[in-house]
Amino acid sequence: MSKPLIEQEKNFNILQNESGKLMILIRARLEDAEHPKLVYNGGEHALLYRNDHNTVILDYIHPAIRKALRQKKQVLIVETNNGSVVREYVCDVAYLKNVSVPKNLVTI
């Protein structure tokens, strides 16, 4: 069995529409998301658990969007490849003050 994969998303965007809903745009992954969850520490960092085998680190979340993200129970995740939408899904948000990554997991 392979170890879980943890990837740092180097280029992502978080957009808020006029009604206050949030959308997070990330690079598409090979596998589909299964029961995704976004774990957010209320500051610069969040972890997107896409499935049992893939976690995406969202680092350095812009200060202007942090308050809105702290208040959300769900966000829309949009995965793109070369400007085309590959998949989109609604993701529950969990707020945890301390978000950490176990050291024994594979990272790229």
Description:
The chain is mainly beta. The protein contains one helix and nine strands. Strands 2-3-7-8-4-5-6-1-9 form a nine-stranded mixed β-sheet, covered by helices on one side. It is globular, with a radius of gyration of 13 Å. The mean pLDDT is 89.
Structural class: mainly beta
Shape: globular
Low-confidence runs (pLDDT<50, min 5 residues)? none
Question: What is the string of SSEs from the N terminus onward?
Answer: EEEEEEHEEE
Q: Helix and strand layout, with pairings?
A:
Elements: E1 5-9, E2 13-16, E3 22-27, E4 37-40, E5 46-51, E6 54-58, H1 63-71, E7 74-81, E8 84-95, E9 106-107
Parallel strand pairs: 1-6, 1-9, 3-7, 4-8
Antiparallel strand pairs: 2-3, 4-5, 5-6, 7-8
Q: Short summary of the structure?
A:
The protein is mostly beta strands and 108 residues long. It has one helix at residues 63-71, and strands at 5-9, 13-16, 22-27, 37-40, 46-51, 54-58, 74-81, 84-95, 106-107.
Task: List the defining traits of the structure above.
108 residues, 9-stranded mixed beta sheet, 1 helix
